[in-house]
Write a structure and sequence with these properties.
Order of helices and strands: HHHH
Radius of gyration: 14 Å
Strand content: under 5%
Number of domains: 1
Largest sheet: none
Number of helices: 4
Number of strands: 0
Mean pLDDT: 82
Helix content: over 70%
Length: 106
């Protein structure tokens, strides 16, 4: 299963990178990083012995938490809170969880 997670995450990152010119601003980066963090979090939880449902919750929760913390950090540094960044994070989270969930069915 480890090779499948790594391979699928790599393929997902390549696909999102190819779509980058079609997505405005840095939204592609938010999606890409969120997908990677979600997949990595799920993989780490599975490796630690978590059941599939718990692993998905861990990966999704980790990625969502880091996305919100990043936006909060932007606000504290004088920037603006950008809800569209969180939407891009959500798209990446869904992509990473979907690919990981499909691999868990193997």
């Amino acid at each position: 299963m480890r090779v499948s997670f790594v391979f699928a995450t790599g393929v997902l990152l390549i696909i999102v990178s190819c779509a980058a010119p079609l997505v405005p601003g840095d939204k592609w980066a938010h999606g890409l990083v969120s997908a990677g963090i979600t997949s990595a979090g799920i993989w780490l939880a599975v490796e630690a012995g978590a059941d599939d449902g718990t692993a998905i919750v861990c990966g999704v929760g980790l990625s969502a938490y880091l996305g919100v913390v990043k936006e909060y950090s932007d606000c504290r540094a004088g920037g603006l809170f950008d809800g569209s960044d969180l939407l891009a994070d959500l798209a990446g989270i869904l992509a990473g969880a979907s690919v990981s969930g499909l691999l868990m069915e193997e």
